[in-house]
Give the backbone structure.
Amino acid sequence: MNKYKCVSCGKENLSKDEIGLTKKLISRDATTFYCIDCLAEYLCVTTDELRDKIEEFKEEGCALFK
Ligand SMILES: [Zn+2]
């Protein structure tokens, strides 16, 4: 368990990927985080697209996803 939970739906124990994605797509300085479902809704994309993004960022070696 960690202290991060989705500010929108309240889902607890967000994954590193979800936290990284919030930082990458919303704000590097984000202090509130979204789960992948709420991020997808917020950004009007599908969760599959977000998962593809995560893989892309990892391949780029983005520090937020290590
Ligand atoms: Zn959520």
Notes: The chain has one domain: 16-65. Residues 6, 8-9, 11, 34-35, 37-38 surround zinc ion (CB under 6 Å). DSSP finds three helices and no strands in the chain. The helical segments are 16-25, 36-43, 47-60.
